[in-house]
Queue: 2 jobs
Job 1
Amino acid sequence: MKAQDLNFDYKYGFSMPESHVYKAKKGLDENVVKKISKLKKEPLWMTEFRLKAYRAFKNRPMPTWGADLSKIDFDDIFYYIRPTEGQKNSWEDLPKEIKETYDKIGVPEAEKKFLAGVSAQYESEVVYESIQKELEELGVIFCDMDTALRKHPEIVRKYFGTIIPPMDNKFASLNSAAWSGGSFVYVPKGVKVNLPLQAYFRINAQNFGQFERTLIIAEEGSFVHYIEGCTAPIYTTSSIHAAVVEIVVKKGARVRYTTVQNWSRNVYNLVTKRTRVEEDGVMEWVDCNLGSGVTMKYPSCYLVGPRARGEVLSIAYAGPGQHQDAGAKMIHLASDTTSRIISKSISRDGGRTSYRGLVQVSPKATNSKVYVSCDALLIDEKSRSDTYPEMKIKQKQVDVQHEATVEKLGEEKLFYLSSRGIPKVEAEGLLVNGFIDPITKEIPLEYSIELNRLINLEMAGSVG
């Protein structure tokens, strides 16, 4: 994927002079894995976990379904870059180039306005953290995964790799071997975190692999909303983002996880996200994918307790040179469980979107309810949209609904808006934002405004 082939205006495509205190050699082998673990001063069990995962990664073949991954050169990637010595709790203590990067993205303003906690990852490490004192007093833990492993080893060891085993898929194995940074969230029983926690992930270096690891545990009756944002500069070489997100939703708890992914188009975005939802628990994924050259991501809910509920609301936007292969997985393993998948995709100027979904209802999942809706919008004749739904229903006492639509941008609606004096490009943006409105209204106001603005930037000058 070459930057010169990416004809678009990307707001976060700027890069800063590369600065680091340690940079591993290119490529991944057992020595690099051991070095990462040694530098982080990890316990022996984590080093062994990494090595076992690395061997699984080497032995597992590349996926032959989904997007084209044949151009990934794993030997041409830097798997670990440490940008600073340790974390900073004061924004002003960060190195100038890192601080300027996050100032441009808007981290300080976001923190001031409406966030309960902020974590900022630059390359392989979380470089800045802030959490309101009120949350600490309630017993909420919000830190990076490396700090969690050091300060809360008993919790990490209990849950780490249990929702997504290191052998789950090739890129989960890669992450498990080379993981660095990411977020750890622990919400005690009955605690409701009223403001969102947010993490920003930034790739600045060329030929870089970012492998953050996120683990969220919501104890009985608790609530938390976690938001992640992702950006990267444009280079002539490709980078990999292969994250793993594990979430445990205990009895009666609720977790919402919102992603606004706007990587540049030289990034392969290959992510595994999964949650275990216990009795009366609720898991909500809000997944917005605008960036990257290739995305393969399917947030999953394992509904293991009676009356557990899972929901995935997803938006995929593919412009020139992009393939967004996204979707969801819902696994019903208990009675009276409910799942809802709503997918909206937009393809324009030769872009390709794919919905890939799995719904599985086990024999024990009596009286379960399933709803799947996949809507695709094609802006022009060059673009493409595919749907790959899979239903495995092994219980008769269930209610299953599935619907899918593909439509083109309506000429009649465009004519009506233009007749009211609205320029064509603006009218197209309005229609696209109206198409995705059922999902954007589920996002906090500040983020839905940003999402609509990004969509309008993508549309401007690209159609017609």
Job 2
Amino acid sequence: MCARKLASVLSLLCAMIACNCAQAQQGYTININLESATDTTFYLANYYGDKFFIADTSHGQPGKAQFIGLKPLKQGIYLLANAKKEKLIEFLVGNEQFFSITAGKDDSRPAVVVEGSIDSQLFFEHIALVNDSHRKIEDIKLLLDKSSLSETEKNHYLNQLDSINQSISDFRMEIISTYPTLLFTKILKAMEDPLIPEEIKNEQDLAYKYYKSNFWANVDISDERLILTPLLPMKLKTYFEQLVLPDADSVIKEVDALLGLTNGNEIMLDYLIWHFIAEYQTPKIMGLDKVFVHIVDQYVAKGKLGNLTPSIEKQLLERAGKMRRNLLGLKAPDMWLVDTTGNFRSFNEISNQFTVIIFWDQTCGHCKKEMETLSKLYQTNTYDLGVYAVNSTNDFEGWKRYLNEKKYPWLHVNGMKSMTEDFHNLYDIYSVPVIYLLDKKKNIIGKRISAEQLSSLMDNYLKTENK
């Protein structure tokens, strides 16, 4: 065989071997040996935000689990659970997905031995260092509590504490500098809080602004692997509940800024959009439903949300359509509904400083309690208050009998007979009771509140008006 043909054959063989090796490394094989366990059934589960989902199952020998798949696992934090779905051990799945973990109580070697995964190896080394450091710190704190310590001894122990904390920091920085793209590196960096400069630590406003503006500096929002950790939802909760003003426009600004940090990563963008949809469709704080409407308008309606079926898209658009008409600050949509005498009446007839619109039903126990609370507030004459009570049932006779018994001195109407659009759509009513509070100009200043909350809301409004 001539040299040229031999070289060609060798090249082909090398290519075939390389191809076979690449194919051999497709998928995953994870072997876990828990030397003290007796279970024979195990689950491999991955985090997805603050929840976790089963990814694979193993049946075999006591304490030994093997998970094999033809497709690579999504990278993130995984856990091993027993048949009762109790968490036994956590580990990382990064680029290397053919590895083994052995955990036992043999004092002659580390508690956990990892072969084939630098991510998980460093993960367990970090856990061991932190646990050992915390034990030392607790021992030193006990010594510091002694009242007989001299100043020199005190400083000695304080220096030891600093040294222990510095060793943890040095370990983390070594990993970050050595393995910049590693999954564990991204997790370590995201765990770090912004370090406030010494010169502004005692300046509360400056320290807050610095902390807030640098909160996401070490979090790679374009890295979808963070979705498969509980870290991201914790960071989102901290930022939006503790650092961002609970004002719709402020939240919208921060949501847009964070979504911009995804830098084209569609998986992360989808995750965050769905997170914010869940948070603000039924927000805990009044007025933040405007954030939901904004997200639907800017991301759902404009096709920026990927994993979306036509039916879900339609539901989101319809929901936002109902909510956008009754947002805080907007003029309340007019209603012309029939009263107990058969005449059509509007709440715009009410000339009081405040108008309460309450949607209720005389067969609803909670509604009755709200009406009684509202009646007590009304009778105090503390506020210049008018009430437009909208009954939501078609039992006209039962409605009239109940009102005749209670004699609430308000404007009563029934929503089943109307000259205007269905009140369910105008005010997004899907259950009762629901209370809206309007100012003199009939702008919405409170919504979906209880009757007990009305007085504080009106007090706050009056204080703001009088400034």
